[in-house]
Amino acid sequence: MDEKHIHWDYYRTALAVLEEGSLSGAARALGLTQPTVGRHIEALEQALGTSLFVRNQSGLSPTIAALALKPYAESLRAIESALLRSVSAEANEVRGTVRITASEVMGVEILPAILADLRQTCPELSIELQTSNLTQDLLKRDADIAVRMTEPLQDALIARRAGTISLGFFAHAGYLARHGVPADMQALKGHSVIGFDRELPYIRALQKRFPFIQRADFSLRADSDLVQFAATRNGYGIGVCQLGLASRDPQLQRVLAKEFQIDIPVWVVMHEDLRSSQRYKTTFDHLVIALQALLGKA
Questions:
Q1: Intra-chain end-to-end CA distance of the chain, in Å
Q2: Which residue in 5, 44, 71, 278 has its CB near the most CB atoms, within 10 A?
Q3: 83 has a pLDDT exceeding 80
């Protein structure tokens, strides 16, 4: 088989095996039979002239060639998804699919109510909501619209400021009753503090402003903001929460308010090529207006 004419299905199958770790897992994810998945992998390996997977006791291990292939297969999948969304409705009608990406907390605690309102006015509109704290590339069409906590710099993106989210230290009333309220930042050393695990770029930027925030000082480490929020609400210790979300729970009390507050701007972003499509424009405008009403226009 000429490698220039390898069917996309084979790359999609290889990506599923990479993500699932086995032929059977990939078959379930793709809705195929296991023999079909095996044939796809075998055909792709023959076309590329290299092995992609090695069998072991736990399933299949990817070779270096398979790992090198993965980002390109992910790009193909994103492009296919974007193509399907782009032809799923007429440009002047509010119907079809819009893919939105947002942080975990934004996607779970804030956007569902906003999107429910959008659904009431646009019943033929379908939403794909991706929650991740990693920034998705709108230029590569990994998503159509993003709700971000950093201002985009690319000229090809349309961005609207949608307010500000403020963060502070909070703890459950039961935890504070047992351990007391810290008098100052130095007193945090004697408390259970909830924080991050990996030092991602935005964490390193935060540490420059607040150098006392160090991974080694945390009693519970998790990269998921939802896990940190849940641990704080359940009395594990002192964690960083959005002021607006913490106010919903009367058992959460703010500590060290004068010493620690982070104000993060919120932006709604989309590629400029989408502004002529009514479903993207309607979704974009709805997000901006609703978030500004909730967060303020600061």
A1: 59
A2: 44
A3: no
